[in-house]
């Protein structure tokens, strides 16, 4: 069971990185369709990064109050809402608005899972998953 949970944590980490790569891969179509400059992606990236850092700063209090499971589930929901919002965003303003929950979700998931893994697993557990 412990190894299965660790494998699930790894899968969540992979999912955590998807929104960033999807934005970068889709940007050529996004900026052209919305008629915005290519450099506008930097605004989206900065907002996501700042919100990720803010979520990380407050993660200890949030995790202690709600627990790792609730924080992870809610953060995943925030990230999903952000991705859905990005798909319907009609302009750069709404892309930036949708970047806020994406950043907060990413920061909270990252901090919650890192905290959980640090408290419940030995460093050798991470080697077992990769080496079999």
Order of helices and strands: HHHHH
Percentage of residues in helical conformation: over 70%
Proportion of residues in extended strands: under 5%
Query: How would a crystallographer describe the biggest sheet?
Result: none
Describe this structure in words.
- There is one protein chain.
- The mean pLDDT is 84.
- Helix content is 89%, strand content 0%.
- The longest helix has 33 residues, at 2-34.
- It is mostly helical and 132 residues long.
- Helix 2 runs parallel beside helix 4 (92-120).
- The chain has helices at residues 2-34, 41-66, 68-88, 92-120, 123-131.
Summarize the structure.
The model has no long low-confidence stretch (mean pLDDT 84).
Key descriptive features of the protein:
0% strand, 132 residues, mainly alpha, single chain
């Amino acid at each position: 069971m412990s190894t299965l949970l660790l494998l699930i944590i790894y899968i969540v980490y992979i999912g955590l990185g998807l929104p960033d790569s999807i934005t970068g891969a889709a940007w050529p179509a996004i900026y052209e369709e919305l008629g915005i400059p290519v450099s506008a992606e930097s605004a989206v990236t900065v907002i996501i990064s700042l919100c990720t850092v803010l979520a990380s700063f407050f993660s200890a209090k949030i995790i202690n109050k709600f627990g790792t499971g609730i924080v992870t589930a809610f953060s995943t929901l925030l990230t999903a809402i952000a991705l859905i919002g990005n798909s319907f965003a009609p302009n750069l303003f709404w892309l930036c608005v949708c970047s806020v929950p994406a950043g907060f979700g990413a920061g909270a998931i990252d901090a919650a899972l890192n905290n959980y893994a640090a408290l419940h697993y030995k460093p050798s557990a991470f080697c077992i998953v990769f080496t079999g």
